Queue: 2 jobs
Job 1
Amino acid sequence: MKKNILVTGGLGYIGSHTIVALHEAGFNPIIIDNCSNSSYNFLNRITKIIGYVPLYYSYDVCDKKSLDSVFKSHTIDGVIHFAAFKSVGDSVINPLQYYRNNLDSLVTLLEVMQENESANLIFSSSCSLYGNAKQQPVTEETPLEKSQSPYAHTKQVGEEIIIATCLANPKLKAISLRYFNPIGAHSSALIGESPLGVPSNLIPYLTQVAAGLRDELLVHGNDYDTPDGTCIRDYIHVVDLAEAHVMALQRIFDGKHQSNYELFNIGTGKGSSVLECITTFEAVSKVNVKYKIGPRRAGDIVKVWADTKKANTVLGWEAKLDLKSMLESAWKWQLEGNI
Ligand code: WQD
């Protein structure tokens, strides 16, 4: 009997890729997504990839009654919680929307899981909660600096809420995955990053400029304390990231978790600057990207990249795809698949 895995935000960028990975690993993914930052069209595209229409509920995770009805209709063996607002820049402008949505959805989910004795949770956390860490690369033990954005703060508080709940309820087993910067797209170019409106993230904006959909890329500052003055991030292929979720779930099901709360950095261990992304993209696409240097963006951290030893040795996961592959797949998605 296949295990049922509820994926909140399962029609989103990382969520949709994880649905595919879960199916391929022999799980039965069940999607809950209110499409506040995703498109129903992704259900059709996921269907084309996996060959059947996965169970889908267009509910808001903050709606406790609706969420509970899903747990009453199915045995939920595991939950992967993606549903959250995720733009660093936007969270600085709309902090209350981020605190309300990201924290209310998590608390509601934990309540419903406990009330239905559903015990296994993978939480979508983020490297942005490291803030401007003094030491790079960051490990899971790196002290957290002051959050640089409400988004990062919701992820930090989210982890603390889960830790407290695991302490109070030993039956709950949770793993937080601190993502670095997910980019790229599935090889089919049927699913990929498809932000509603103007992209806040670098790569979708960059590929839209390269495709002639936008005039030029604004680089948010080149006066940072980095080799070329632009911010450094650890970009990770979304397919590698999706695989990490499957392995984290499997770790719990196999009883390998060493405590009922674990935490892993999910990155490549390599940092790339904004300008390096531009030049690497131009090399793989053979397209020049028009850009200009603008002011710094509020909420940005200067540099962050992962120490991946724990994920490699304890979780048994490591990133397989490099920046070139990520950008090639992002470009293919922009040209062939984007909606
Ligand atoms: C990257 C760099 C920008 C747009 C993301 C996700 C967040 C989290 C962490 C998972 C920064 C610069 C951007 C542009 C630019 N992931 N930039 N011009 O802010 O690191 O956050 O990764 O939890 O959910 O949003 O990613 O792509 O917005 O920015 O110069 O038009 O690119 O200033 O230095 P960020 P990003």
Job 2
Amino acid sequence: MPSMNHLLELEGVSREQVATILDLAREFKAVSQRRIKKVPTLRGITVVLFFIEPSTRTRLSFEVAAKRLSADTLSFTASSSSLSKGETLLDTARNLMAMKPDVVVLRHFASGACHFLARSIPAAIVNAGDGAHEHPTQGLLDMFTMREHKGSLDKLEVAVVGDIRHSRVARSNIQGLLTMGARVRVAGPRTMLPPMLDRLGVRVFDRIEPAIEGADVVMMLRIQKERMGNDLFPSDREYARVFGLDATRLGLAKPDAIVMHPGPMNRGVEITPDVADCGRSVILEQVENGVAVRMAVLYLLSAHLLEG
Ligand code: CP
């Protein structure tokens, strides 16, 4: 199994590398289905969970993933650390390194923060979401979930709908899915579509209906209000009316299409509660698969440190 130095983005990660991570995640998913959900694989490895932005799913699933592999974890958030007293990211990271961690999992509001850390400290860095740039493990767990349901990502028709402009999840999915041979359509209000998106090789729509028509996968995204300078749409109600996924619109997708959402969901805005909870929704499977994918990533980043 090849090792990796860092996981900062899916841009530039090869088809073979993605397949390796997803195949390994399938092996690790079996660990979580046992009665004793723990293996000694990463005993002696220390993983720091360094979350400068709020998170429920990513932080907890990295922690569960590390613990299921018997790694030690240190976890801290901005409000509970000396960052709130003005300490810089670099000084905080240097102090962390004095405690000799092997892997640092970073979520940060600034795009590029993970690249900065990777250049600055001698630990393997995992990007757990940096600004509007990328969220590579979310892209990987989404592809893992699609592959479980559809068998292959090749030629899969995937519609990603919502606030594409501010979404690191959209960016990682687009990069990963195109690498794996899927066909990606994106849709959202024009104010939430970044310029020159079509140059990436995706089809771009400013209405939801043509984007989800005949799709195998419909992925809905939250409006990232925390990253918007100004309001880019009139109201939540108007957004729901024009871009929300309801049962009627889902009827345009293939009959066996699956519904995905990275969370957190705003029920009644981008997705109606009945669709979020319907039999075609795999939203909680995405969370379960997040643990398996993050176990695979932690393994590939640190197993070589235990050799010899
Ligand atoms: N999908 C995702 O990143 O969720 P959290 O913000 O809760 O980690």
